[in-house]
Write a structure and sequence with these properties.
The complex is a heterotrimer of chains A (552), B (286) and C (320). Chain A is built from 16 helices and 22 strands. Chain A is of the alpha+beta class and 552 residues long. In chain A, the strands form five sheets. In chain A, strands 1, 12, 13, 14, 18, 19, 20, 21 and 22 form a nine-stranded mixed beta sheet that branches. Chain A has a four-stranded mixed beta sheet with strand order 2-11-10-9, with helices on one face. Chain A has a four-stranded antiparallel beta sheet with strand order 5-6-8-7, covered by helices on one side. In chain A, strand 15 and strand 16 (377-379) form a beta hairpin. Chain A is globular and about 80 Å long. Chain B starts with a helix and ends in a 7-residue tail after the last helix. Chain C is an all-alpha fold and 320 residues long. The chains are: A alpha+beta (552), B mainly alpha (286), C mainly alpha (320). Chains A and C meet through helix 1, strand 11, helix 5 and helix 13 of A and helix 5, helix 7 and helix 11 of C.
């Protein structure tokens, strides 16, 4: 699957990938393997062999946005906070934190005694330095905009960091999950604008995470070894080797031949190729909702789609179950709104649109659309027909468009499908708002703030509210949600936001595709959540009798 | 010409190759008529069905009929072969005849250019060019053509060098015929035989090249079906659906084989002496 | 000395490739909607001087690549392109040299046997093999072998250059591990070429055998093995050296596919990834280096041609 999301969304998603191991957790995940004997005792040793599809693009996570780099980076580095099962922030390098009443001052108390991999102590100065690095104009960090509202970051002694915001900012806390950088090693390079020339960029990264960097062979592998001084204790598994295998087909063959211990499966591999006993014996399979949802969107400047009843009618007419079955072999969760089921912000107490053609017809009739003698839907003598754009090369989306086409045809609506090359689609159609309908996806970040997607002020050509949605109620809720640092208040705003969006239905939410990881069953302690299995992977272990590679 | 047909008709392998080539061409042209299903229409209820009486060659991940896709794919694959070889031949003839006829500086310049182009591993050059272009079926065809003309140029030049000294050319020159006219009317027709052979051997090379590019995901883009991208899709599910890998693979193999057999047959029938000079231009297009 | 103008030519053609783009490379990249850092793009502009007249651009570029300065990768690590190539070069070189050695080692005896026993069963079956070998798509063969030998039979590793824990193996196991990882890729890479060479060998052997001096050697009553091995073979080797030299671009080009399928960290794999990531400096650097390598290989072929047949002066290979 090629998953591309526009610029800002990438940053958000990537940020999530970085905290990697802890994007979110909750109750409804599924693990369906032969569960290994629970009595096995933790033991040190063995090597975990993971697979990466692409090359590492740098070992300083601050300047990368690709998954491979963040996956490796998340083992080497850690941030001030990380995330627990419900995606709630919990302390990592920060022991505790406190917001001021007006939410504009955030004070972190750092965990004492944390050491960099080279033995130097981690202090508040490193935090200040990390922030300065990200916002330094000569440092190519894609995350600069996330820190736009930070007015100052000050060290108050070695263990206290005070951050001041120019206005209340909901993402304030989660942004500090970013990887902390060692001031004593990088300062010179950053000051001279040569961060790429620092050895940490490629050959000698130093972090505070559970694993230390051992070696990187371009195009072949990255090797990490356990950090005996990790503040949560030395990880059990002694080594992680990331094999770089550029072809997904080859990776799968390697998995079957036990050449790698983990990968993400495709829906077909999950449903049809990994159910035989030998595989189930050797691997634990998991599924959890992924970080993106797929939707059918409409240009709301088009008077036909500006009518809420039309959108609701389409939502009733599009059989989401058939879509998920046909496109994802059922491996997806129905999206009731733009938030992922199972996370703290999600609510299912919203209006839903089960497949119902009669309701769809009634709503369209109410909106003034009538069937003519040819069975076509017409209003003011003009038949209802429109074009759906999607990006070429994404079979899932094309299939969705085809199913939608078939189902709307029953209503008498004619739909044409036009797959376009991504760059052209974005530049010529989406940005210029020259479209009637689209089938695309949105990546979601850790924080529920989706101001840039739904707020009526974000409809400019380079902004992300492509569909030109404007609803004062939604605007108010978005603003309330992003300017509060009190969790319970935010939950309320976002639950209301979901209710309003589900009723007003600016677009037809389809599904969150499931991510389908597998991990070798000799690895114990894998704790699956709704958002992944990598959470706290430093607690994984292989019982002594099952260890496969000798420890080094 | 009669001797040619007699020689060719005795070569059973070449005839077999010719028959396959012809059948393929007819099926490709008639694809819309003979294809049992719409090659682009997915059927989510029939994903990866094994070959059956309904779908002779099974269905793919999206439930599309593999036979229909193969037939339409033959169109694209053959079109890529013909068009790119056409482009290569045109360039090759133009440069080769210029070099062979004029000799001297022109010849030296063209031959240096040929040497130069031959130094580039074709796949690297193709990838480099494709990275800068918006990929489409036309780009792929032109790029394969533009990187494959060197053999023809050498061949045509060699023929020209040989023919130039012949009486009829010298005579035409002496009566003041123009260079273009002499090349076009007198020399070129005589040089066409080896070019024809080179073309026949160039088409399978182009087909292999295109399928290789498609296999890397850099060839003709979906929704166009080509044998290469059917194979590329198939590799992900090869153990689940052998028919997605075996049929297009065998189709490529058979096509390339047939073209090669036919090409060699034509060459032998035209003039056994051509063996050495033309041989090296056939084969694989890397 | 004809190498220098050719080297210049290589740089020139590579340079022209950049200008094939109908649009602006920067435009293409930024149109993808992926967040990128503009600094290396600006450097790229500067390196290629894309805002200056063509000849100035070319001259400036040339001055830098003479010092092997191909600029920096667009990837966030921004490493010098030449460093990236240097890491990848040994794998590709080693693979190609081994492939060539194997092809010569196998195709010579096969070709000679076919020629001396023309129309025998052996000859006929090699002919079939030749045609099938030519026609088999290598990527297809590769995947089939991976599944058969790697997954089902479990005899050989599927991909990579060595085991991920290679460093901890005893010495001999390390060697075997390397070897076993190379078997599949080299088999696939040589399969098509082998077919071709044995045929060339057969052909040139047939021609030599028919010649007078071989016939007279026979007439003198020399044993057949001496006639073939000493007199005929040496002369028949000449064309195969030429063909081998000419086949270098094909082999190196083939490593694009082989290295991608088998996850080998060579230049081909680097190239494919660079194309997907539109990492233009890497693409350009790769192209120039690979072409220069091929040129070098051709020179070596010319030299060995001279060694086998002293009558031929170096540098005057039949370019007719």
């Amino acid at each position: 699957m090629r998953w591309r999301v526009p610029r800002r969304a990438v940053a958000a998603v990537a940020l999530c990938a970085m905290a990697a191991t802890g994007c979110s957790h909750g109750a409804d995940s599924a693990m369906d393997s032969v569960v290994p004997s629970a009595s096995a005792a933790p033991a040190y040793g063995d090597t975990f062999i993971d697979s990466l599809l692409g090359n590492i693009s740098s070992l300083i996570p601050t300047i990368t946005s690709d998954n491979a780099s963040h996956e490796v980076g998340s083992q080497i580095y850690s941030g001030l906070v990380t995330f627990d099962k419900d995606l709630k922030p919990v302390g990592d390098l920060a022991e505790s934190w406190e917001f001021s009443k007006d939410c504009r001052d955030l004070t972190f108390r750092l965990r004492p005694g944390v050491k960099w991999h080279d033995g130097q102590p981690f202090t508040a100065d490193d935090v200040v330095f990390t922030w300065q690095t990200i916002i330094d104009p000569r440092v190519p960090s894609p995350y600069k905009s996330e820190y736009g509202l930070v007015e100052s970051v000050r060290a108050d002694g070695p263990d206290v960091v005070r951050v001041h915001y120019s206005q209340p900012f909901a993402k304030a806390l989660t942004n500090w999950a970013t990887a902390m950088l060692p001031k004593h090693l990088l300062e010179r390079y950053v000051r001279e604008g040569r961060i790429r020339e620092a050895p940490q960029n490629w050959s000698a990264p130093v972090g505070t995470g559970p694993y230390r960097f051992k070696e990187l062979r371009s195009g072949e592998k990255v090797v990490l070894v356990s950090n005996p001084d990790y503040w949560e204790g030395r990880p059990y598994i002694s080594r992680i080797v990331y094999r770089i295998i550029p072809s997904q087909a080859t990776t799968f063959l390697e998995l079957k031949a036990k050449g790698v211990d983990a990968m993400l499966l495709t829906a077909l591999q999950y449903q049809r190729q990994t159910s035989y006993p030998a595989f189930r014996q050797a691997y634990q399979r998991f599924r959890h909702p992924g970080n993106a949802y797929t939707y059918v969107g409409f240009n709301l400047k088009d008077p036909r789609f500006a009518d809420r009843r039309v959108r609701q009618a389409f939502a009733y007419a599009i059989d989401k179950r058939q879509v998920m079955e046909g496109v994802r072999l059922g491996l997806a969760r129905e999206a009731t709104g733009p938030y992922k089921p199972g996370t703290w912000v999600y609510t299912d107490k919203v209006k839903t649109y089960p497949y119902d053609m009669d309701k769809a017809r009634r709503l369209l009739a109410e909106a003034g659309w009538t069937r003519n003698s040819d069975g076509l839907l017409v209003k003011d003598g003009r038949p209802f027909s429109f074009e759906v754009l999607t990006n070429q090369g994404n079979d899932e989306r094309k299939k969705i468009a085809e199913i939608v086409q078939a189902q709307l045809r029953e209503l008498g609506v004619t739909v044409e499908i036009r797959p376009l090359e991504w760059a052209a689609l974005l530049k010529e159609y989406i940005k210029k708002r020259k479209f009637e309908a689209i089938v695309l996806g949105w990546g979601i970040g850790i924080d529920p703030d989706q101001y840039v997607v739904w707020h009526s002020s974000q409809t400019g050509p380079d902004q992300l509210n492509h569909i030109s949605y404007a609803n004062p109620e939604v605007d108010r809720l978005l603003e309330a949600g992003r300017t509060s640092c009190v969790q319970s208040e935010r939950v309320k705003s976002y639950h209301q936001l979901q209710e309003v969006l589900a009723d007003d239905l600016p677009l037809v939410f389809l599904y969150f595709a499931d991510a389908l990881p597998v991990v070798a069953s000799r690895i114990h302690g894998v704790d699956p959540g709704p958002n992944g299995v990598r959470w706290q992977s430093f607690k994984w272990f292989v019982p002594r009798p099952l260890q496969r590679y000798t420890a080094g | 010409m009669n001797a040619f047909w007699r020689a060719l008709s005795k070569n059973r392998l070449a005839l077999g190759g010719g028959a396959v080539v012809l059948t393929l061409a007819v099926m490709a042209v008639a694809a819309p008529l003979v294809a049992p299903h719409d090659p682009h229409k997915p059927d989510t209820k029939r994903i990866l069905e094994a070959p059956s009486s309904r779908h002779w060659l099974g269905t793919d991940q999206v439930g599309r009929d593999v036979l229909s896709r193969m037939l339409y794919g033959a169109r694209v694959s053959l079109a890529v072969g013909f068009v790119s070889v056409g482009i290569a031949t045109a360039i090759g003839i133009a440069l080769g005849s210029a070099a062979g006829y004029h000799g001297g500086t022109v010849d030296a310049a063209v031959m240096r250019l040929v040497d130069l182009m031959l130094v580039f591993p074709r796949f690297f050059l193709l990838l480099a060019v494709l990275a800068f272009l918006t990929p489409s079926i036309w780009t792929i065809m032109s790029v394969i053509g533009l990187t494959g003309w060197m053999g023809v140029a050498r061949l045509v030049r060699a023929e020209f060098l040989a023919l130039k000294e012949r009486e009829f050319v010298i005579w035409s020159q002496s009566v003041g015929a123009s260079a273009v006219r002499i090349i076009w009317r007198h020399i070129l027709p005589n040089a066409m035989a080896p070019v024809l052979v080179a073309m026949t051997l160039g088409i399978p090379a182009a087909i292999l090249t295109e399928s290789g590019l498609s296999f890397l995901g850099l060839g003709v883009r979906p929704p166009h079906a080509t044998w290469g991208n059917i194979l590329n899709d198939g590799k992900e599910v090869i153990e689940l659906a052998w028919w997605l890998s075996v049929y297009p693979g065998v189709a490529i193999l058979l096509t390339v084989l047939s073209y090669n057999l036919l090409g060699e047959g034509i060459r032998d029938a035209l003039d056994p002496r051509l063996r050495q000079s033309v041989g090296r231009f056939g084969g694989r297009g890397r | 000395m004809f190498a220098i103008p050719l080297l210049l030519g290589i740089t020139f053609i590579s340079f022209m490739v950049i200008h094939l783009a109908p649009g602006d490379p920067v435009e293409i990249i930024s149109g993808e909607g992926i967040p990128i850092d503009l600094k290396p793009l600006q450097d790229f502009y500067k390196l290629y001087g894309l805002d200056q007249p063509l000849h100035v651009q070319y001259w400036n570029w040339l001055k830098r690549i003479v010092r092997l300065d191909f600029g920096q990768s667009f990837a966030p690590h921004g490493r010098p392109v030449i460093h990236m190539i240097r890491e990848r070069l040994p794998v590709t070189l080693a693979l190609n040299v081994i492939e060539m050695l194997i092809m010569v080692a196998l195709s010579v005896p096969v070709g000679v046997t076919s020629a001396t026993r023309q129309y025998s069963t052996f000859d006929k079956s090699t002919t079939v093999f030749v045609f099938v070998g030519f026609a088999t798509p290598d990527f297809w063969l590769a995947v089939m072998l991976q599944i058969l030998l790697g997954v089902h039979l479990g005899w050989l590793p599927i991909s990579g250059l060595r085991l991920p824990v290679w460093e901890y193996l005893p010495f001999w196991q390390q060697q075997w591990d390397f070897l076993s990882h190379l078997i599949l890729p080299i088999t696939v890479a040589t399969f098509g070429g082998l077919a071709g060479y044995s045929r060339y060998m057969r052909q040139s052997m047939l021609e030599v055998i028919r010649q007078d001096y071989v016939q007279s050697a026979r007439a003198k009553g020399l044993p057949e093995s001496v006639v073939i091995g000493k007199h005929a073979l040496r002369n028949a080797m000449l064309p195969i050296v030429t063909v081998l030299g000419l086949s270098v671009p094909g082999l190196i080009g083939g490593s694009v596919i082989i290295e991608t399928i088998f996850a080998l960290p060579g230049m081909g794999q680097l190239m494919v990834q660079a194309v997907f990531e539109r990492d233009y400096p890497v693409i350009m650097g790769n192209l120039v280096i690979v072409a220069s390598l091929t040129l070098f290989a051709n020179l070596v072929a010319d030299l060995s041609y001279g060694l086998i047949d002293p009558r031929i002066r170096v540098g005057r290979r039949g370019r007719a």
